[in-house]
Q: What sequence folds into this?
């Protein structure tokens, strides 16, 4: 998979794409990341990429021209058709199902908007999928783009090792819609606190029953909406 990211802040991505599983996936050639700095495409002689909103109001709106030209230039770097995605609080929610679907694509082009928004005309012309990572507002689409990349790349076959496999994750398709159970490891006593006896009993069936109960209880308490 090729992932293009268009942003005014490419430097935000370098540490994240260069760490942990996202780094390993690139090293293993399962994915390649390409960062495009939208500002490089502005024809404005002062390097401006935004302007005040028509109709008034606070904040700035990203201009059409730099973004359009950045998308066209980036897309022409490779013959693979890109699935265009705009990260915005107005988008459809990012779900595990959506991540599974995106993990099947051969190329994603993510647009991280900043400021108050993007001129609607360039959105209308690009027709991207619009995706939100949750009902809260961030200062820009960069962190959401990184969240989306992480959720997708770990699902590309061969990225996770056997022990890390995503198939049992809480929100995987086919998996039950239950939150995870608590986890414990050594030492068996820490700070005067033990671990639930069942986990050291060696009784695998009892462990499974306990974990199941914990998952149901936690889901009922914290996310009753998942049980509906
Ligand atoms: N940009 C700002 N906030 C966002 C959010 N919650 N999801 C996606 N993009 C955003």
A:
């Amino acid at each position: 998979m090729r992932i293009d990211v268009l942003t005014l802040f490419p430097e935000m991505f370098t540490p994240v794409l260069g760490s942990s599983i996202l780094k390993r996936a690139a090293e293993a050639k399962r994915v390649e990341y390409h960062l495009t700095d939208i500002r490089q495409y502005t024809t404005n002689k002062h390097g401006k990429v935004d302007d005040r909103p028509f109709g008034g109001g606070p904040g700035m709106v990203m201009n059409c021209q730099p973004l359009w030209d950045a998308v066209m230039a980036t897309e022409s770097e490779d013959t693979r058709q890109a699935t265009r995605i705009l990260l915005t609080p107005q988008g459809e929610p990012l779900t595990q199902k959506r991540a599974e679907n995106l993990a099947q694509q051969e190329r994603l082009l993510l647009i991280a908007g900043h400021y108050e928004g993007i001129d609607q005309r360039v959105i209308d012309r690009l027709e991207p999928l619009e995706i939100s990572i949750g009902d809260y507002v961030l200062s820009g689409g960069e962190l959401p783009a990184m969240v989306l990349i992480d959720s997708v790349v770990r699902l590309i076959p061969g990225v996770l090792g056997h022990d890390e496999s995503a198939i049992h994750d809480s929100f995987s398709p086919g998996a039950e819609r239950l939150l995870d159970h608590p986890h414990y490891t050594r030492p068996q006593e820490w700070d005067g606190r033990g671990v639930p006896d069942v986990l050291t009993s060696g009784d695998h069936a009892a462990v499974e029953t306990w974990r199941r109960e914990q998952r149901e209880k936690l889901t009922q308490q914290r996310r009753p909406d998942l049980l509906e």
Notes: The pocket of adenine is lined by residues 87-89, 132-134, 136-138, 140-141, 144 (CB under 6 Å).
